[in-house]
Amino acid sequence: MQKIVIIEDDKAIMNSLSDFLIAEGYTVYAAVGQKDGTRLIRECSPDCILLDISLPDGNGFSICSDVRRYSDVPVIFLTASGDEKSVIAGLELGADDYIKKPFSPAELVARIRTVTRRKNGGARLLHHSDIAVDTTKGIVTKGGREIYLSALEYRLLLIFISNKGKLFSREQLIDELWTTGGEFISDNTLTVYIKRVREKIGDDMKEPHIIRTVRGLGYRMGDDEDA
């Protein structure tokens, strides 16, 4: 049974989410503040963290930053509607996904399943150079060593590695991520994702050669002869 930690300053939201997730078969732990939430995460080693940004004794950014020092556990931020700056800040700190309030509990469960799905078995491998993606397990390796990608970073890499040599405009990538992720992806957010994927797969940030920038047109993975 998967364990979920909810850190949310609104007790009504926290209680309703807890009840719903318990009914869905999860074990749920909840806290309303940064101090208690940080302690709870370390004590119970959850499979996923649901994290509000505004907390009575701190903020979710500090918790996410602390967690990323020792764990790759999936983190989903619960954000205020239209707060794009907070979304980008959370992604920069290593969050896997975000969902805007108000949201349906069923949508949240779908997000949780997406970010934790990479633990499942089976194997279908896609390759580019020394990068391999097991699309069933959701595992990405480079040179045989596993690298950790968030759910949306993984989906972005999958778009490129499934279509090697194909040119994608920024608009096409935004549409693809919006369709698969179920959440609006802004132009600024796409920039964050591309930067993070390049960093994690070891691309040259000054002259990228894995996910290449085609000036004025968009991006593609490698050249046609590399595919």
Total strands: 13
Distance between the termini: 41 Å
Question: Class by helix and strand content?
Answer: alpha/beta
Mean pLDDT: 86
Major β-sheet profile: 5 strands, parallel
CATH superfamily of the largest domain: Response regulator
Could you state the order of secondary-structure elements as H and E? EHEHEEEHEHEHEEEEHHHEE
Strand content: 15-25%
Taking Cα atoms only, what radius of gyration do you get, to the nearest Å?
Answer: 18 Å
Give the CATH level 1 class of the largest domain. Answer: Alpha Beta
Unreliable stretches: 119-123
Give me the CATH fold name of the largest domain: Rossmann fold
Number of domains: 2
Quick structural summary:
The protein has helices at residues 11-23, 34-44, 60-67, 84-92, 105-116, 151-161, 170-181, 187-200; strands at 3-7, 27-31, 48-52, 54-55, 58-59, 75-80, 97-101, 125-128, 131-134, 139-142, 145-147, 211-214, 218-221.
What does this structure look like?
The protein is an alpha/beta fold and 227 residues long. The chain has 2 domains: 115 residues, Rossmann fold; 107 residues, Arc Repressor Mutant, subunit A. The chain has 8 helices and 13 strands. The strands form 4 sheets. A 5-stranded parallel sheet has the order 2-1-3-6-7, with helices on both faces. Strands 8-9-10-11 form a 4-stranded antiparallel sheet, with helices on one face. A hairpin with a 2-residue loop joins β4 and β5.
